[in-house]
Structure formats: structure tokens, C-alpha cells
Amino acid sequence: MNGELGREGRADPLDAHLAELRACLPARTELLGGADDPRPVSALESLALRLDLPLTRIEGAGHEPWLEQPDAVRAHLRRFVQGAMGA
User: Fold this and answer.
1) Is the dihedral of CA 43, 45, 49, 51 positive or negative?
2) 80 half-sphere exposure, CB direction, 13 A CA radius
3) Distance of CA 45 to CAs 29, 54, 83, Å?
4) How far apart are CA 18 and CA 4, in angstroms?
5) H-helix or E-strand containing 10?
6) InterPro entries per the record (predicted)?
7) What pLDDT does 6 receive?
């Protein structure tokens, strides 16, 4: 599956859709990923930079941080929402 997705991504690079993606994002957006995700973290870092978004990596989590480190994800989401509300 990753091979097929990789070919598709190369055929239609994300860069061509960054403006469209940016327009769909809420005013306050952040990327969140597992620090131990088997996919290269450099891809997520690059996307965060291109979209000018903060990136939070959850330590001790891989591909599904919400399942692997639910308390850490919950705490981060609480801080994120409280920050958005100015609390």
C-alpha cells in the first residue's frame, strides 16, 4: 500500500495542493504525530514547515499516538483547546 501511495504522491505532489489545504484548515491548527512513528518524521516536519504550522511529537508513540499514549495526547489536546480559548 505504501508503494502505491508513494507512486500516487509522486504523480500528484502535495506541494501542488498546499494553498488548497491551507484554505481548509481552521485558523488555529497544529500537527501531532508519534515520535516513534515508523514513517520518516522528516516528512511531517517538512509539511509543518510548508504549512507554517507547529508540530508536536508525542514521545513513546508511533503511528497511532492516541492509542499508544492516550494520556499524553489528551493532555496536549486540553492545552491546545485551552490556548485556543484564551484560558
Assistant:
1) positive
2) 15
3) 14, 9, 22
4) 21
5) helix 2-11
6) AB_hydrolase_fold
7) 64
Exposed, middle or buried: residue 69 (CB in 10 Å: 0-12, 13-18, 19+)? buried
Question: What sign does the CA torsion over 73, 79, 83, 87 have?
Answer: positive
Query: Shortest CA distance to 32 belongs to which of 60, 2, 65?
Result: 65
Query: Domains of the chain by range and CATH?
Result: 1-86 (3.40.50.1820)
How many C-alpha atoms does 20 have within 13 Å on its Cβ side? 5
CB of 48 within 8 A of CB of 31? yes
Of the candidates 20, 19, 62, the residue with the CA atom closest to the CA atom of residue 44: 62
For the stretch 2-61, pLDDT in tens is: 666 666 656 657 778 889 998 999 988 999 999 999 988 888 898 899 999 999 999 999
Please tell me the distance from the alpha carbon of residue 24 to that of residue 2, in angstroms, as a whole number. 25
